[in-house]
Design a protein that fits this description.
Layout lengths: L3 E9 L2 E5 L2 E2 L21 H10 L3 E10 L2 E11 L3
Antiparallel strand pairs: 1-2, 1-5, 2-3, 4-5
Length: 83
């Protein structure tokens, strides 16, 4: 039976802000004063997915929801485990 690793990505403002709960920005999240600008410091979703695909990840599902901070998408990625 094939086994998989999974990754959950949070997308806001067309950028991947968190992956498996880890901040993806190039500055500390605590230093961002205006949350609507957090996407300025994170990879664009298409760039993130292209890089993840090169690492063997594939998109398994996507869910969109509304939060107090606006629209949020969750991307569920998977890739086969070695062995």
């Amino acid at each position: 039976m094939r086994r998989y690793a999974y990754r959950v990505c949070q997308v806001q403002f067309a950028t991947v802000t968190f992956a498996d709960g880890r901040w993806q920005g190039d500055v500390p999240v605590e230093s961002i004063q205006d949350l609507s600008r957090m996407g300025d410091h994170c990879p664009k979703v298409w760039d993130y997915l292209a890089a993840a695909g090169e690492e063997g990840w594939e998109l398994a599902a996507a869910v969109s929801e509304t939060s107090p901070h606006g629209q949020v998408e969750r991307l569920y990625l998977k890739r086969p485990l070695d062995g």
